[in-house]
Design a protein that fits this description.
- β3 and β4 (about 70) form a beta hairpin.
- The model has no long low-confidence stretch (mean pLDDT about 85).
- The protein has a seven-stranded mixed β-sheet, sandwiched between helices. Strands 1-3-4 form a three-stranded mixed β-sheet.
- By secondary structure, it is an alpha/beta fold.
- The radius of gyration is 20 Å and the shape is globular.
- It is about 45% helix and about 20% strand.
- α1 (about 20-40) runs parallel beside α2 and α1 packs antiparallel against α10 (about 290-300).
- The chain is built from ten helices and ten strands.
Amino acid sequence: MPYKHYDWVNSRSPPILQPHSLRKHEIIETYIENYISNLKAKNYSKNVKITIIDGFAGGGVYRHLETEKICFGSPFIFLKIVQKIEQEIRSNINGNFNIDAVYYFIDNDKNAVEFLQKQLCKRGYKKFIGKNIFLLNGIFSKIHPVISEIIKNRKSKSLFLLDQYGYKDAPIDVVSKILADFPKSEIFLTFAVGALVNYLVDTPQFYKCVGADKEKYSILSKKDISNLVILKNNAKTIDDRRAWRKIAEERIFNRIKNICGIYYYYSAPIISKKSNRSYWLLHITALKKSHIKFMEVCKCFLNHVP
């Protein structure tokens, strides 16, 4: 199940950002700005602590597919929004208000981390690297226990962006653990549901991909897979296949909900024109108001999905 990662080696020419990824960034940016604004509204008289964990940060800078203009990825979206809100507060109140934000930008691609570091230095963030901006080269699922301990010690709000390429780099058991440790956190999880459904087969290799051997935390159980494959083989018409895909996607969504527990869930559907595959931008949180706001933001943007 191949996924084409971005090329971060050529620093003179950032990789192309596909329209569906641009839309995803726009949704996240709009929501995060609202999130930070709400924090400052509740904390006018004191500083705000927040820890932002970007588990698949990439190189931070892209080129627009049509215009070739520079587009910023999630690391710069987070940094710029926090700066913007902090400046707005300071201009409206007396005294120094501070958003005590710490950022962990993680990526398993060494070239992506090096590219991001160069871009941060180029854009005025060099002095913050190692102080409140931390660049980590490694696998998110292996790094997150250390970061979780840091968040516990900081006693801060926490946001997790897990913008994985597929559906197994951010394991559901890890997501479940984050929610258990930080009940008031918010998680944004990209999930390539279209690819998972396309490749659904009743084989040991597929069991391994979805963690079916770990029954408690598998995306699909062996029984689910067997039943869905039977339905798939019996789907003869276009309508039958559409109905089968809907059943498969519902089974996966409910499985994620059952593993993670009692939280609010919303899956924003994002379609890639290039691959014609559907992705979910999942928002998982115990905070009802945040859940409602995210749904509102998504519905505004997804009326015109690229």
